[in-house]
Design brief:
Radius of gyration: 14 Å
Distance between the termini: 42 Å
Shape: flat
Number of strands: 0
Low-confidence stretches: none
Strand content: under 5%
Mean pLDDT: 94
């Protein structure tokens, strides 16, 4: 069995973090905590999109990552 490269393992980690952050958001009752978790989820999504853009060489994903980063800043 072959081990996936570090970039695919990192993408899987980002996907798992996005799922865990979604579950964490479900358990929150305070708006401030929800906003902080949403910003963290956006940052993880931006990082995952940047890594995928670098891996595949598709330029439009860089634009998507920039728009995502613009939403959380």
């Amino acid at each position: 069995m072959t081990v996936p490269g570090w970039d695919l393992q990192l993408l899987n980690l980002f996907a798992a973090l996005l799922l865990l952050l979604s579950f964490a958001m479900l358990s929150q009752r305070r708006i401030v905590s929800l906003v902080n978790l949403l910003a963290l989820q956006g940052a993880v999504l931006c990082a995952a999109t940047l890594l995928l853009a670098w891996r595949t060489g598709q330029g439009h994903l860089y634009l998507s990552a920039a728009l995502t980063l613009g939403q959380i800043v």
